[in-house]
Amino acid sequence: MKLKVDKEHVLAVLRFLGITLLAMVIALLVGSVIGYGISGKGNPFQVFSPKTWQHVLDFLR
Predict the structure, then answer these.
(1) Which sequence ranges are marked TM in the entry (predicted)?
(2) N or C, fewer C-beta in 10 Å, the chain?
(3) Residue 1 lies in a domain
């Protein structure tokens, strides 16, 4: 049995997945900035520093 695949439907699903993934990444970045700035009481953009993440990884080990 062969299924007919509608190209427009496939593109709509891929577009939806792409937009959802992008929204999730943006939410993660904004949440990190807000969380680090408020909870950490430091510079909110320092969350993107490799030194910060190295400290977090060292703490978890």
Answers:
(1) 12-38
(2) N
(3) no
> Quick one: DSSP state of residue 47?
G
Q: Residue 2 domain-assigned?
A: no
pTM for the predicted model, two decimal places: 0.71
How confident is the chain (61 residues) per 10-residue block, as mean pLDDT? 83 97 96 86 85 88 89
* Per-residue pLDDT at 3: 75
Hey, what are 29's tokens?
A: 């970045």
Single-letter amino acid code for the residue at 28:
L
Q: Show the tokens assigned to 54.
A: 């190295």
Amino acid at 59: F
- Token couple for 21: 């993934």
3-state secondary structure of 10: helix
pLDDT of residue 17: 98
Alpha helices in 1-61 (DSSP H): 7-38, 50-60
